[in-house]
Amino acid sequence: MERYDRQLRLWGSHGQKWINKANICIVASQCALFQEILKNLTLTGVSKFTWLHTGEIDHDPLFYKDLAKGLTNLNTTVVDIRAQNIDYSDSAFDWKEYTTMVVVNANNKQWLENILKRTDAEMPPIICTYTKGLFGYSYTKLFVPHFVLESHPEHKIPDLGFQAPWPELSSFMSSFDISLLSSLQLSQLPYAVLLYKMLQYVKDQGVEAPSNRDIKAALNDYYLGEVNSDGFNDLNYLQAQQHSHLSTRKQTFDDLEDAISCNNKLLQSNSRRHSLMDDTFSCLLCSLGIYLDENDRNLPIDPNIPDMESDSTIYHKLKLIYQNKWQEDLRKFENIVAANFPALYRDTNLDIKGAIRLFFLHSREIKCINPNEIRLFENDGVSHPIFRQLINSQFEMGRSFESELIERAFKLTSYPTESYMGGLVAQETIKLITHQFEPIDNAFIYDGLTNNAVTLKV
Q: Which residues form the signal peptide (predicted)?
C-alpha cells in the first residue's frame, strides 16, 4: 500500500504532487486553531510553511514547543517552518511566492482590509478564519478567477455521442440489423446499440427532435412489438429503458463556457497568474476554446463508457471505438496547444504531456469560481447574525448579542470548535492547491450551539 493511499483515491498522484510542492503562508498567533490547521495540512503532505506570528511565542502546554520536530512525526518529509514576526507596516512584503495564504484569528482590521482589497493578479488565494466560543467562520478571497479542473461531480451522466456520431461509431451501429437477429443475439447487444437503433427509428418516422418519451415508446412498441417480443426480461432491454435519456441528451457545458470566457479576459489583460499551475491551466483552457471552435462546439468524447450487459466481445469493440475517438481528439488538442503555446513544451519543471492528457480527460468537469468584492467590513456587508457577531468580536466593533445564551456561548473555550474549523480550513486549502473539488464560495459559518453550518456569498 502506498503512502497517502486513501487520499490518493480522492485527488490522485497528480494532486499529491502539487500538495508536496505547496508553500503555505500562515498568519497567526500561537493558538489551537493555528495548530489544528498546521497539523492537518502536514498530514496531507504539505511540508513547507512560513509562519508570520502576531505575538510572542510562549510555552503553552497545548501547543507544540518545537513545531518542526513535532510535525515531522506526521510527515516523512522534513517539515520546513520559517517563523518570523509579522510587520503590519511592510506593504512591500512579497506574498507571490506562496501557493495559498491562511490568516488565523487576525485582529488588525486595517492590515487585513488592505490585504484583501489588493488588485494584483499574482496574489495567492487567501483563507481568513476566526473562532470564538462555540462559533467560527472561514472566508475565501480570490484575486483572479479560480479554475477547478476536477470538480468530481457526485453524479456523472455519460455522453454516448449520439447527437454527433463519428464515422466509426455509425459504422459499428449499422453493422447490426436487428430485424435479422435471433432473440439470443439481440439479448447480447449492448444497450447503447438498442438506443441508437431506436433513435434512428424515431427519426425515420419524421420526428426531428426525438424526446426521451419517444425513445421509450419505440422500445415498447417497435422493439418489443415488432423485433423481439421475447425480450421484455432481457437485461440489455431493461438497461435501455433505464438509460433511454442518454440517447437524446444534448451537450451542455455552461460552466466550461464561463470558464473559457473568464480565462480569455485574463489573457487579454496580460496578467500573470501567481503559480506555474495557474499559468499552464490558463494556456490549456484557451486551447480548449480553440478546439471547440474547430469542432462545431462538440466536447471531447468521454472514453469511459458505462458497463453494459452484453456479449463481452461486442462490448469490447464498442469500448475501443470510444477510446480511439478520444485518442484522436487528444492528438488534435495537443497540436493546438503546441501551435499556440510552444513555450509550455520547453518548461523543464512541467510534464506538459501528462498535464494535457489530464486536462483533456477532465474537460467536462471544469468550473470557474469568480472573485468578488470584499464586503466583510461594511455594516451591510454581512447579514447573517452569527457571522456579524463573529466579525464584531474579531475586530472589537461592538458586541450586541441576540440572546443571553449566545453571549454565554461566545465566552466559552471550545477546542472541538477549533479542531472542526481547523479541519475545514485545511480541506479548503487543499482544494485550492490541487484545483480539485469546488471550494466554498465564499463564506462558511459554524454554529456549535445548534450544531449547524451554513455557506453564503458575501
A: none
Hey, what's the cell of 420? 472542526
Q: Which CATH superfamily is domain 5-143+371-456 in?
A: NAD(P)-binding Rossmann-like Domain (3.40.50.720)
Residue 74 has pLDDT above 80, yes or no: no
Give the burial class of 293: count Cβ atoms within 10 A of its Cβ; 0-12 exposed, 13-18 middle, 19 or more buried.
exposed
Q: How far from the centroid of its chain's Cα atoms is residue 283's Cα?
A: 18
Phi, psi of 295 (to 5 degrees): -125, 35
Q: What is the pLDDT of residues 413-425, one digit of tens each?
A: 899 999 999 999 9
Q: Are strands 48-53 and 80-85 parallel, antiparallel or unpaired?
A: parallel
Confidence of residue 229 (pLDDT cuts 50, 70, 90): very high
pTM of the full structure: 0.88
Structural domain spans, the chain: 5-143+371-456, 167-247, 254-368
Q: Please name the residues in contact with 119: beta carbons below 8 A apart, sequence gap of 6 or more.
A: 143
Tens digit of pLDDT for each residue in 180-225? 999 999 999 999 999 999 999 999 999 989 999 999 999 999 999 9
Strongest mean pLDDT among 90-99, 314-323, 405-414: 314-323
Angle, helices 254-268/276-294, rounded to nearest 10 degrees: 120
Closest CA to 274 of 432, 147, 94, 121: 121
Buried b (16+ CB within 10 A) or exposed e, 93-112: eebeebbbbbbbbbeeeebb
DSSP 271-333: PPPSSHHHHHHHHHHHHHHHHHHHTTTPPPPPS-PPP-SS-HHHHHHHHHHHHHHHHHHHHHH
- The C-alpha angle 107, 108, 113, rounded to 5 degrees, equals 115
Judged by phi (left if over 0) then psi (alpha if -120 to 50, else beta), residue 446 lies in beta
Question: Are residues 395 and 388 in contact, defined by beta-carbon separation less than 8 angstroms?
Answer: no
Hey, how many other C-beta atoms are within 10 angstroms of the C-beta on 213? 11
CA distance 352 to 337: 10
pLDDT score for 273: 61
The pLDDT, as a whole number, for residue 54 is 75
Structural contact between residues 24 and 120, judged by C-beta atoms closer than 8 angstroms: no
